[in-house]
Amino acid sequence: MRILILFFVFCLFSCQSNWNLDPVHVKESLQKGSDQWTENKVQVSTRLGDFEMELDPRTPLHRLNFIRLVKMGYFEDRYFYRIVYETGIQGGGEYLDRLNYLVPAEYIDELKPVRGSLAMARYDEGNPEQASSPSEFFIVTDTEQAARFYKKYVVFGKVTQGMAVVDSIFKAKSYDEKPVIPVKFDIKVLP
To answer: Any idea of its EC number (predicted)?
Structure first.
């Protein structure tokens, strides 16, 4: 039994290391994949339905990072684990599943958080450059409330189909911003 547990832990950390990038050379590492990660549309599947998102080419590092993680299977069996009061839903890699790098900030004046915007979360501690989390994202459900996020979180895409599904996730019963029943999702790249 002990050997089985050790094998599981080894597999967990060795698989996770494939998702990580060299924290010092994130930009260069992502740009190397620009030929193989050319897509900019994804589909999110949940028990409440599916929705589609389009990633903005004006934020190439965020787009490349997100597509890379989708193609590598990082977002399989993840959860929308937070319902941000009056603002949106958050999902992705949480706590123990955090990756070891940050994505350099790419603030675009024209990309303001509005209803349906896709943005990356950010860690405040030890992050003076305001770089983004590589794996925690949120989707805005209310433009007025989200205005306070302008230039604090990088908007790098938008929901293009199925906003009603996002609204259903947002309306799920929650306690202290945690859904009582977290909504599991999978993401796949669309052609």
So the answer is: 5.2.1.8
Rounded to two decimals, the pTM is: 0.88
Give Cβ neighbours of residue 64 (< 8 Å, ≥ 6 apart): 30, 31, 33, 34, 37
Structure tokens at 16: 């996770």
Output helix, strand, coil percentages for the chain, rounded to the nearest 5.
30, 30, 40
Please enumerate in sequence order all residues whose Cβ is within 8 A of that of 176, keeping only pairs 6 or more positions apart, or say none: none
Range of the domain at 64: 2-190
* pLDDT tens by residue, 62-83: 999 999 999 999 999 999 999 9
Rounded Cα gap, residues 117 and 4, in angstroms: 43
CATH of the domain at 79: 2.40.100.10
